[in-house]
Amino acid sequence: MEPLSDENVIRLINSMKSESIHVLIVESDPSNARAIEFYLRGFSRKGLQLSTLSRLDEVYGASRQTWDVILIDYDNQAPEQLELIDATRALMANLPTIRLGRHSDNMITSGAETALDEYIKKVSVSTPSMLRSVSHLLERRRLEDQVESMREQLATASRGDAITGLWNQSYLVERMSEEFNFFLRYHTPLTLCLFSIARWDYIIDTYGYLVGEDVMRGIGRMVIEAKRQTDFAGRIDSDVFCVAFPKTPIEGALVPVERLRDKISHELFTGKASENFTLQARFAIIQGDPAHSSFEEFLSTARQTLQQANDGPDGHIEILRPDSDPADQAEAS
Asked: Are the C-beta atoms of residues 59 and 100 closer than 8 Å to each other?
């Protein structure tokens, strides 16, 4: 980053979109704190809000507040200041920090290794140097936030189904494999529900793929509305969905599944020439069984149970409990 002239630094501070920039000064000596504030106080009306952290018992409360920049005086070697520095860095280690010290403080300069640290020699302190460091740190934080936002967007896109807004098959299997291993280790209940849309091929042939995508989006919305916050949901085939209920027996999963069945059967979709139509779905519910060695095996058994459900009437719920033979129809709802 190119050095900024004093005039440009002041112009940058004045043009920042944030209404205020919150700076926390970590200094146990009141006279030192006043000296540090002197270099910044003249610009407080330009958007800098200054606060001083001077006591150890104030650190936790300060860590619960929002700070844009922390300024720490490392030149003060008093025991209370050293304790204050250690506690501040422990609780606010990820915040942009200006380290103020003597030019011979190798410990201080070697510690300023992250992109969100700046070091100012005490002999070089001035209002422009302070503002220059503040502006550099804020710009770096802004760029890091942009990169992190892009990473989160890419991560969301890689695990999501673009049409339904639910998880895609690969991420669902990955996440559910972890949950299934938890089930095997701690013997907590785990229930899986698969459901498919009845006569899906007829819907596509009659109304086309664009209407089919609208239907998928509607199904995704209804799944999100019907499931609990702790449940997982994804699309695993063109017309097959999966909802997983961690730490939940079959009886607990039946309530949101029946709620979802009612939502689907009462939803109106629009086809050609504003023609309305409704959907029906068939469901398979299976509870985790230690006889399954992996989630893939568990999912395979659930698919077999869904095939049995597809032979039943619209809205049919096929239930398979542990120790039941998948070839036998255990229960029906």
From this structure: no
Q: Is the torsion defined by CA of 120, 121, 122, 128 positive or negative? A: negative
| CA-closest candidate to residue 70, choices 90, 49, 41, 99 | 99
- CB-CB contact of 284 with 318 (8 Å): yes
Residues ≥6 apart with Cβ < 8 Å to 91: 59, 60, 63
Please state, for a pLDDT cut of 90, what percent of the chain lies above it: 47
Strands 269-270 and 240-246: unpaired
Domains and CATH numbers, the chain: 6-155 (3.40.50.2300), 169-332 (3.30.70.270)
Q: What is the DSSP letter of 192?
A: E
User: Apex CA 279: angle with CA 312 and CA 158, to 5°?
Assistant: 100
Within 10 A of 111 (CB to CB), how many other CB atoms are there?
16
Q: Which amino acid is at 287?
A: Q
CB count in 10 Å sphere of residue 4: 17
Contact 322, 289 (CB under 8 A): yes
Tell me the torsion sign for CA atoms 45, 124, 4, 67.
Answer: negative
pLDDT digits (tens, 9 = 90+) for 7-58: 555 555 555 555 578 889 999 999 888 888 888 765 544 567 889 999 999 9
Number of helices (H), then strands (E), in the chain: 11, 13
